[in-house]
Amino acid sequence: MKKLKSYYMHLRQPQSIERKWIFPLAIGSIVSLFLLFLTTLTSSDGTPLLPFYRSFTAYSSVFVESKLKPVPVSNLPPPPRFAYLVSGSNGDGKMLKRTLEALYHPRNSYVVHLDLESPPQERLDLQNYVNDHPTFKKFGNVRMITKANLVTYRGPTMVANTLHAAAILLKEGGDWDWFINLSASDYPLVTQDDLLHTFSYLPRDLNFIDHTSNIGWKEYQRAKPIIVDPGLYMTKKEDVFWVTQRRSVPTAFKLFTG
Ligand SMILES: *[C@@H]1O[C@H](CO)[C@@H](O)[C@H](O)[C@H]1NC(C)=O
């Protein structure tokens, strides 16, 4: 009998040992799970709450997670604003809408212009589109030059139209950093978000126009010829033309090229 009992006790012993360990093991697992959970918590600026984890991430760059630490938003330079002129002519209405939508961003300002060669119906259609577009209406940053001008490619009417649009954009608050003039046939290769982000690192007075008063060969080739722009006095489009006479270089102001 005794033998049987000791045999029985011998059999039970491992079981009682197991049972003895279950409780501390459970407590231990819960505590370590809790600690693990704490290490995943981060404070609002993106740094981990637990100090040991903080020093761990600071000294080890082997782990991708430490490199992926989000940059605090306040450290980014503020994004700039662009002012766009998108212009087109007869038949460009649809293309102009497409370009405008691809370029659109609530931060920017836009002026669109369909020149006098486009039929009144096409211009009216664009005007209604700009006025009724829910997003344009909400941010009020798209306007159309409704009194259309006749624009001759390479002519002074083109420069005048560009300056007119810039003047409108300046009058509308002028809270923009760069002016970009595009044709309806242009299409952006990057999104406005990417462009605004990239330009946020550039000094705001950076000029992309090569601008100099040292006009060199252009004095004879560009300043002295007399060019006539039919867009100034005609209602139909015609190319600019050169007359045989030349003029002297103006002295009342200095000529710049860009
Ligand atoms: C932008 O404006 C300038 C000056 O009028 C003009 O020479 C140039 O061709 C324009 N660019 C586009 C894309 O319309």
TrEMBL record:
Record's subcellular location: Membrane
Pfam family, one: Branch
Keywords: Glycoprotein, Glycosyltransferase, Membrane, Transferase, Transmembrane, Transmembrane helix
Domain of life: Eukaryota
Membrane disposition: Single-pass type II membrane protein
Gene Ontology CC annotation, any one: membrane
GO molecular function: glucuronosyltransferase activity
KW ATP-binding (keyword) present: no
Name this protein carries in UniProt: Uncharacterized protein
Organism of this sequence: Cannabis sativa
